[in-house]
Amino acid sequence: MKTDEVPQDPSLTHAGQRKLFYAVDEQGDYTEVQSLGWDVESYATLAAVEVLNQQRDDAWERAKAGLTAPLEYHMYRRRMDRASFASATGFWRWRTSRHFKPAVFARLPDTILNRYAEVLGMSVEGLRSLPAAPDA
Amino acid sequence: MSDFHHRQSAHCESGVVANMLTHHGLPMSEPMAFGLSASLTFAYMPIIKLAGMPLIAYRMLPGNIIKGVEKRVGMRWERTRFSDPAEAERALDAALDAGRAVGLQTCVYWLPYFPEQMRFHFNAHNLVVYGREGDDYLVSDPLFETTVRCDRASMQRARFAKGDMEPKGLMYYPTGTPGEVDYATEIPKAIRWNAKTMQAPVPIAGVKGIRFLGRNIVKLSRDANRDTYLPLYLGHIVRMQEEIGTGGAGFRFIYASFLQEASRLLGQPALADAAKDLTAAGDEWRRFALRASKMCRGRAQMDVHELDAILNGIADRELAVWKSLRHV
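Predict the joint structure of the above. Result:
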């Protein structure tokens, strides 16, 4: 990549931050160039964020309708999925999935709730409640 | 507080290692740290899933640069992991109060200074903490243009995030640096080792792994749910390549820059030629990302054979580079 080929597409995902690239100048020497972003990269990032937000909003709707526990919504709000959530909590995946059932969730002992609260970085009270909007 | 000289880098671990060695009196560029540790690779790992998609790596596992440089330079890191977060916090504060700059492994998601859109759960992000002020740590994060701050609670979360590759509070600093490094011996050793791993006789790694990825894309195009899955899959590849860390092309450029620096240092023009060829391979990686993203956005006709051909072209170019470097 030549220095003048380093992409400079102002990118939302960078929030004004510039990234460093190594590129070749006119003499053929490697040099450092800062980049405002690349559309290809922003697209891939935003698509991934979009998927995460969609999952979060779905879980919020289902929790609001009482079909799942707020726990599932909080998991997605923290940008985790079932696999990474299970790995982060140390519980088997079937077990966390079971804890998403509102009736099971209501009976969970504090030891388990504390573990969830710690992994999600929130209080146990927060874990039990649902905010007014999914992106609140 | 130590007067740590912040220098922006393309990749977190090579940046932290180069900056810390420079801080300790052994001036080193980021590409040199990356090259000396023989960290360039390609690996397609269908068994390890990220958000349901296979892991595609363009460099060696996290920790490889720290360990690789240790071996080649002949220095030693003091590396500590903790089971007790409170103890980890005390150890960090004590090191800072003693005037040390400390390397930490962290999870990106919990670092508040990252732009919202970039906050994903990635547990192997490296940064340097060089001081503290009130309830804030002073951070030299090599991916950022300037130094930043991070509050104590967030830093604790980032250091003790759970899940794959969890940091367990890892902190590290060099116990000292040698006055001189025998580059004439160590650089060729590192290059030969990297040439060997890139030509490893396994189907999913190195040059063969690049071809494997191409074949897999073609295979998926015959799948029943290709219309939904294939664009997601290509989007994932582009994301692994360009956004997570430095990306496939970015690492090629870092390594090419290393080869150029090595060529000057050792007076070997052949290394500069290899740098040129590897740059060309990096440019092809970028073209691949561009074409793949156009196809999954519907701005170009989906053509898996074109993508497969680009990847095979990259594999050919990289193979030629590594063959020429096998006996430097």
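The mean pLDDT of chain A is 93.
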